[in-house]
Design goal:
By secondary structure, this protein is an alpha/beta fold. It has three domains: 112 residues, Elongation Factor Tu (Ef-tu), domain 3 (Beta Barrel), CATH 2.40.30; 126 residues, Rossmann fold (3-Layer(aba) Sandwich); 81 residues, Ubiquitin-like (UB roll), CATH 3.10.20. 25% of the residues lie in helices and 26% in strands. It is globular and about 65 Å long. It starts with a helix and ends with a strand.
């Protein structure tokens, strides 16, 4: 081998080493393909079943400290996909206490705009005069501290804001009904800062006035947003024209006096008396049914729960996992009420066909619904909370 040939081999080997080094460097700098992560994120946008979240902050929104906001971040740290403002979360809570069931399911509205890092809900401590606080809301207020892990179903619900340039939105909230309305309002103004919008917010007095600074800040920042606050029972320290705009209740007369002429889209969420008074009033005013949107989860707001027709021959309802077969005599509004009255344990959340918590496999038979549920029912399943038997049934419960 000549010296020239040897030099050629050396140069070739050196060149190959350089090429390999360059290839390794390029490979190391190449970004990790984003598709798998994107696919994972998409799959978790509406994940099935329960997912673990940790409370990362909590803050009271009213002077009376009855309305507490919780920021909830996923333990798996995968970015949250956007929800539709107005939707809610379904929480499955392991509640301790001798007078409480081991686990309760409740639905709470998302009270802020979508964020990839966390969800925010606002929970009012449920209580009536002389009665203890609600099981779930009381537990959240007293026990759910920063670091507490909660199990949550994906956002759901059909009470969402839809942009319609020909119909400016009118938001009407009573009490804790402000939570989905606030999410809608903030989302709408974020997308359209010059949007013409009205919010009518009714509370008892200044002690119950939640999100006061937030709402006033939005009104200052967005000239097209008109805020109307109504106190039902002002306290001596509540200042008319500063803390609230009118005493009494939100009424059709108030709407007529303060809304500009023309078509509007109404979004309402509040307690039964407000809903029962305002929705028929709006309909009587000539507002089209398509322009009236109301919160649909929770106890029904517009009428007593529908009862079945006069009972005919009884139907047989079989609960396979419970090992019981019972007669349906038409005494219950729905299959969930029937199961609970017969002491058959069934998970339930919204009780109005929105969250899907009570979805149960239908082994045989047919279930009827007075109105189409908001929740998309999986094939071969049924919703107990809004369903009644059309035939003999066998349920996987």
């Amino acid at each position: 081998m000549t010296a020239l040939t040897l030099l050629g081999y050396i140069v070739l080997a050196f060149g190959l080493q350089i090429l390999v080094a360059i290839g390794v460097a390029i490979w190391r700098r190449k970004p990790v393909p984003s598709l798998p992560q994107a696919e994972t994120a998409r799959s978790l946008a509406a994940w099935q079943g329960l997912r673990d979240f940790r409370v990362i902050s909590r803050v009271y929104e009213d002077a009376a400290q009855t309305q507490c906001s919780f920021d909830l971040a996923p333990l798996d740290a995968i970015a949250l996909q956007p929800f539709q403002p107005g939707q809610f979360l379904t929480l499955s809570l392991a509640v301790d206490g001798s007078d409480a069931p081991a686990r309760v399911v409740r639905c709470y509205s998302l009270s802020d705009t979508p964020d990839p890092a966390f969800f925010r809900i606002t929970v009012k401590r449920a209580a009536t005069s002389g009665q203890p606080a609600g099981i779930a809301s009381g537990w959240l207020h007293d026990q759910a501290q920063v670091g507490t892990v909660l199990q949550i179903r994906a956002p759901s619900g059909q009470f969402v804001f839809t942009t319609d340039a020909s119909a400016p939105p009118v938001f009407i909230a009573g009490g804790i009904g402000i939570t989905p309305i606030l999410s809608m309002l903030k989302g709408a103004l974020a997308e359209q800062p010059d949007l013409e919008a009205h919010l009518y917010y009714g509370v008892r007095n200044g002690q119950d006035h939640a999100f006061k600074a937030v709402l006033e800040g939005l009104a200052q920042e967005h000239p097209g947003f008109n805020l109307h606050v109504v106190y039902a029972d002002p306290e001596p320290g509540d200042v008319l024209g500063e803390d609230y705009d009118q005493s009494g209740f939100i009424s059709l007369d108030l709407l007529k006096q303060t809304l500009p002429h023309g078509r509007h889209a109404f979004y309402l969420c509040g307690p039964d008396p407000m809903m029962k008074a305002l929705i028929p009033a709006l309909q009587g005013w000539g507002v089209a049914q398509a322009d009236i949107h109301r919160e649909s989860f929770g106890p029904q707001t517009m009428a007593p729960r529908p009862m079945p027709a006069v009972p005919g021959p009884s139907l047989t309802i079989g609960f396979r996992r419970s090992g019981r077969t019972l007669d349906w005599l038409g005494q219950d509004a729905n299959l969930l009420d029937f199961a609970e009255r017969k002491l058959i344990a069934v998970d339930a959340g919204c009780r109005s066909g929105s969250c899907g918590t009570c979805e149960t496999r239908l082994i045989s038979g047919r279930v009827a619904y007075a109105t189409k549920p908001d929740h998309d029912i999986a094939p071969g399943h049924c919703l107990l909370c809004v369903g009644t038997p059309a035939t003999d049934l066998e349920l996987d419960a």
